[in-house]
Design a protein that fits this description.
The chain is α+β, with helices and mostly antiparallel strands. Helices cover 17% and strands 26% of the residues. It is built from two helices and four strands; from the N terminus they run E-E-H-E-E-H. It has a four-stranded antiparallel beta sheet, covered by helices on one side.
């Protein structure tokens, strides 16, 4: 089994437990998420859905390790997410951060391929 399928049918993949994420603007302290909790299992297809400004992207930045929660914990494969790493990646939605000559799948696979997580795929 390679790194891309190592989780297989094992236990809990992602656990977000009571997570509050905040960031500062020039004028305000923004609470983007407040005590959010959910679990993602290896076979799940998980969707974050909501209006603009409700905290979806901030939550993804937290799961990717770019933001630390002010409250609660996020665990990937049972380990607390403390910083970005090759076991959890984020593909940004802004066009200027995608490679326009690659397909959607190639853009998604690119970070995994360069980190060595999915060799030969």
């Amino acid at each position: 089994m390679d790194a891309c399928t190592a989780n297989g049918a094992k236990g809990l993949l992602l656990e977000v437990d009571g997570v509050t994420l905040q960031y500062k603007t020039r004028q305000h302290l923004v609470t983007a998420t407040y005590r959010v909790s959910f679990q993602v299992w290896p076979s799940d297809r998980f969707v974050l859905l909501g209006p603009s400004g409700c905290g979806k992207s901030t939550l993804l930045k937290g799961v990717a390790g770019f933001m630390k929660p002010v409250e609660g914990t996020m665990r990937l494969d049972g380990r607390v997410i403390e910083r970005p790493g090759p076991d959890h990646m984020m593909v940004f939605q802004e066009f200027d951060q995608l490679l326009p000559w690659k397909t959607v799948k190639q853009n998604v696979m690119f970070p995994m391929l360069i980190s060595g997580r999915c060799v030969g795929r």
